[in-house]
Design brief:
Helix 1 runs parallel beside helix 12. The chain is an alpha/beta fold. Strand 3, helix 3 and strand 4 form a beta-alpha-beta unit. The protein has a single domain, classed as TIM Barrel (Alpha-Beta Barrel), CATH 3.20.20. It contains twelve helices and eight strands. Bound molecules: phosphoenolpyruvate. Phosphoenolpyruvate binds next to strand 8.
């Protein structure tokens, strides 16, 4: 990864863990990663936790005195008002969040998140100074037919209007091939690097060189302690978005340490 971008490991808990689990997780994290809880300089890798929306407040309170960041898995397409069941970007920001995941393939595939609603969520997030983690990635058929690059470029093109207005450094891109999410079938480091480079070059061409260089690109899809260093060593990959392997604090700490060791070598 480039020295100018801050690396980021993001835990996406999805619809997992309850109140007591989260208390235990944070306690364990404190024991495993004391440098993230010390009253000292920021550690060299950002650590972000995205719990279910209803536990954002709890997580914020438990991590108040730490360098661990919190993010939301979702924000509403709408601002505040009569939208039963929705949670606005303003509320998420009010809870102290820094990031929001937008366009995750589970939202696209299971909950009908369209490119139009993704644009609206991005817009709501940006208005509240939340950094969006925009997820893109192809399905298995597309990968096998050799059209993964074209597919991801189209996903970026669909959001070009809004992402070209985002300040350099205020957007994170996550390349997450759908066939690798939660399957144990991770992309090879070469393929992940190729797609990360493609994303960056799309930004260079369609947004600006500055935005392309400032934007952290994450790989996501069955990342675990045994393979994270493979991705982290790639020049265009600045970290990971992690689902299953982020559900245990010890595993998250192991992945951070593997990346820190890679940074030092
Ligand atoms: C994800 O949900 O973004 C993800 C990459 O999940 P997993 O790590 O479980 O494949």
């Amino acid at each position: 990864m480039a020295a100018s971008r801050r690396p980021l490991l993001a835990a996406n808990w999805k619809q997992n863990l309850l109140w007591q689990d989260i208390e235990n997780y944070c306690e364990e994290l404190r024991a495993e990663l004391p440098e993230y809880f010390a009253d000292s300089a920021e550690p060299p890798i950002d650590l972000l936790v995205c719990p279910p929306l209803c536990y954002l407040g709890l997580l914020g309170a438990l991590l108040e005195d730490s360098h661990v960041l919190s993010g939301s898995q979702l924000v509403s397409t709408m601002g505040g008002g009569a939208y039963t069941g929705e949670v606005s970007a303003q509320m998420v920001a009010d809870l102290g969040c820094d990031y929001v995941i937008v366009g995750h393939s589970e939202r696209r595939g299971l909950f009908g998140d369209s490119e139009e609603s993704i644009t609206q969520r991005l817009s709501q997030a940006i208005e509240q100074d939340l950094v969006p983690i925009l997820c893109i990635g192809e399905d298995l058929e597309t990968r096998r037919s050799g059209r993964a690059g074209e597919y991801c470029r189209q996903q970026l093109e669909a959001q070009r209007g809004i992402i070209s207005g985002i300040e350099p450094g205020e957007l994170v891109l996550a390349y997450e091939p759908i066939w690798a999410i939660g399957t144990g079938e991770n992309a090879s480091r070469e393929d992940a690097q190729e797609m990360a480079a493609l994303v960056r070059s799309w930004f260079r061409e369609h947004v600006s060189a500055e935005a392309a260089e400032a934007m952290p690109v994450l790989y996501g899809g069955s990342v675990k302690p045994a393979n994270i260093a493979d991705y982290f060593s790639q020049p265009d990959i600045d970290g990971a978005l992690i689902g299953g392997a982020s559900l245990e604090a010890a595993s998250m700490a192991q992945m951070l340490r593997a990346c820190m060791a890679g940074k030092e070598s």
